[in-house]
Specification:
13 helices, 263 residues, 3-stranded mixed sheet, 56% helix, Conserved hypothetical protein from pyrococcus furiosus pfu- 392566-001, ParB domain
Length: 263
């Protein structure tokens, strides 16, 4: 649970007004209660040094409890892609269990008794479409380092979904390449990696070749301020000669990086 600005605002509200919306809990078989909805409010109470908060007690089964808990979490304003992905997956699995379908059935083919897929059921009470929900659930197949890049906004949703189809060892290769190249894959690059993976041809070299491709907008041009680079060159150097020297130095730098990566 993140102690972020939103949590701090909740703590201040609890200190001033108390908990306005009760949490939901259910009795445990061995005694006591299990919180279904209200974990963040309970944490805010602890931070605000309040010893109690109101709860509504409901005698419900585990699958229904999971669905209520997920719905409560999805209502938060600031929810990370990873949190949304895990929440949708939990709700999907709970709906499947409640419907009595084997958990091994795929998302695409599973249908409930009313003819609606589990994803369509989730979408009925969600701001996301059934297709988008499927995309979020795919994100749970990402390695943690890649999922973190998605949460940080460094990898977009569409390339992340493509990457999620890579095998775990292939994803680890991509993580190493992202770190060495200081670049993240575009949608088209992620698509090509997925195709190569399906063909059994995705290896270190293939990932590096794809990731080393230059991504730039049309008519992209780099201009270096003369007042910042002039001090690095003799006074006799013309702008053209400076440019040639910079290109040569960059070529040497690139060759050194390639040698380092081969070690």
């Amino acid at each position: 649970m993140r102690d972020d600005d939103t949590m701090q605002q909740t703590v201040e509200s609890v200190r001033e007004y108390g908990v306005l919306v009760p949490g939901i809990a259910r009795p445990r078989e061995g005694g006591g209660y299990e919180i279904i909805a209200g974990h963040r409010r309970k944490h805010a109470c602890e931070l605000a040094e309040r010893k109690t908060m109101p709860f509504i007690i409901r005698d419900i089964d585990q699958n229904t409890a999971t669905i209520i808990m997920v719905d409560s979490n999805l209502q938060r304003e600031n929810i990370l892609p990873s949190e949304k992905a895990k929440a949708y997956k939990m709700k999907l699995e709970a709906i499947k269990r409640r419907a009595g379908r084997p958990s091994r059935n795929s998302v695409q083919v599973g249908q409930n008794f009313d003819g609606k897929s589990s994803r369509e059921q989730i979408a009925e009470n969600s701001p996301d479409s059934a297709t988008q929900i499927q995309r979020y659930i795919r994100l749970t197949e990402l390695e943690p380092e890649l999922m973190q890049l998605v949460d940080e906004g460094k990898i977009g949703m569409t390339p992340a979904v493509e990457i999620s189809y890579l095998k775990p060892d292939e994803q680890k290769i991509l993580i190493e390449t992202i770190d060495s190249e200081q670049a993240t894959p575009s949608f088209s690059q992620a698509q090509r990696m997925r195709r190569l993976s399906q063909e059994g041809k995705l290896n270190d070299d293939a990932v590096l070749d794809i990731m080393m491709e230059q991504k730039k907008p049309e008519n992209w041009d780099l201009k270096l301020p003369m007042d910042k680079i002039r001090k690095y060159f003799p006074r006799s150097y013309t702008p053209q000669r400076m440019e040639e020297t910079i290109i040569k130095l960059l070529e040497m730098w690139m060759k050194k990086r390639q040698r380092d990566q081969q070690r």
